[in-house]
């Protein structure tokens, strides 16, 4: 249900699981994006992936499936 991890323009994507954990951490804690711990990767990556998946309907498909 998630976009492919195949290399795209700009290189490899950071692991989806790591980024999703960062997104969930931010959501659960009510923190600002720049407060996402480094163990989840750069906060800008978490924010960009969250935003991109919101716009392209990925989150809606996951929610519907669950």
Automatic annotation (TrEMBL):
Coiled-coil zones: none
Domain of life, per lineage: Bacteria
InterPro entries attached to this UniProt entry: IS402-like_dom (IPR025161), Transposase_6_like (IPR052909)
Domain Insertion element IS402-like: 2-62
Pfam families for this protein: DUF4096
PANTHER family: BLL5188 PROTEIN, TIS1421-TRANSPOSASE PROTEIN A
Annotated protein name in UniProt: Transposase
Protein source organism: Actinoplanes friuliensis DSM 7358
